[in-house]
Structure formats: C-alpha cells, structure tokens
Automatic annotation (TrEMBL):
<dbReference type="InterPro" id="IPR005624">
    <property type="entry name" value="PduO/GlcC-like"/>
</dbReference>
<dbReference type="Pfam" id="PF03928">
    <property type="entry name" value="HbpS-like"/>
</dbReference>
<protein>
    <submittedName>
        <fullName>Heme-binding protein</fullName>
    </submittedName>
</protein>
<dbReference type="InterPro" id="IPR038084">
    <property type="entry name" value="PduO/GlcC-like_sf"/>
</dbReference>
<dbReference type="InterPro" id="IPR052517">
    <property type="entry name" value="GlcG_carb_metab_protein"/>
</dbReference>
Length: 143
C-alpha cells in the first residue's frame, strides 16, 4: 500500500485553499486522511464555523471507510437511506454523505487516502478537494 507523506498532505491543503480563493468561496476546512483513516493534515481558513472541521473529517472518513467518494455516498443515501443510516450508526455518526470527500489515488491507482472539505456548497467543496489532490500529483475519485 502506498503511504501518504505529510508534505503531500500539506500540498493537498494548499491546493484546495488556492482553488477556494480562485473561486471566491466562503472559508473552508480541509481534512486529509491516510489510507488507514488517520488524520494526516488539517487546516481551516479564518472564519470557518466551529462544525466545519467535523464535517470535513466526516466527508473524508466516509470516503475512506467505504471506498468511494462522498458524492457516491450521497447517491446511496438517496437510493438506500436506511442502509446509509445504518452505516452511520456503525461509525458513531462519523459519516457525512454529501459531496466534498474524495479518495486520493497514486499513479498506479493505489488508494493512499482521502480528503474532505467543508465550508461552501458541497459541489464547490468537492471542486476544491479535486484541485488539492491534483495539485499534489495524485488522482481524485469523487464517486
């Protein structure tokens, strides 16, 4: 399994912040987890509300825990709400099944982690997550 290094995790955060600035978004929080679901890097821009860190982590956690981007989890929540509710119960409420959590894959397609972003509309959060992942030289998986 590939290992997500701190420098790369920080590059993801920087890339996400850069994209948020380019889009003129509200302040965002960015959580980067390694392939084992451990927090590798976290930063929140000035002005984020106090729940944003938890939401960002929940988007990344759900993605890494279930092996799909949180957009896919959002679709599952719409199609099978009882199943996603059960999964959320199993994780103690840690999943946030809305867009903004993406898987991070290396050049060989190996899973190296996930990033979750919260602060603006979910589609904008996801766009920043993808930009951050790509800025660090990885491939983002959104669903």
């Amino acid at each position: 399994m590939s290992s997500l290094k701190l420098a790369k995790a920080n590059a993801i955060v920087r890339g996400a912040f850069k994209r948020a600035g380019e889009l003129g978004l509200k302040p965002i929080a960015v959580a980067v987890l390694d392939a084992g679901g451990h927090l590798k890097a976290f930063q929140a821009q000035d002005g984020t509300s106090f729940l944003r860190p938890g939401v960002a982590h929940g988007k990344a956690y759900g993605a890494i825990a279930l092996g799909q981007g949180s957009r896919g989890l959002n679709d599952a929540a719409l199609e099978r709400p009882h199943f996603v509710q059960a999964l959320n119960g199993l994780t103690g409420g840690a999943l946030v099944p809305v867009p903004g959590g993406v898987l991070i894959r290396d050049g060989r397609g190996n899973l190296v982690g996930a990033v979750g972003i919260s602060g603006d509309a979910s589609d904008n959060d996801e766009a920043c997550a993808v930009a951050g992942v790509e800025a660090a030289g990885y491939t983002a998986q959104t669903d």
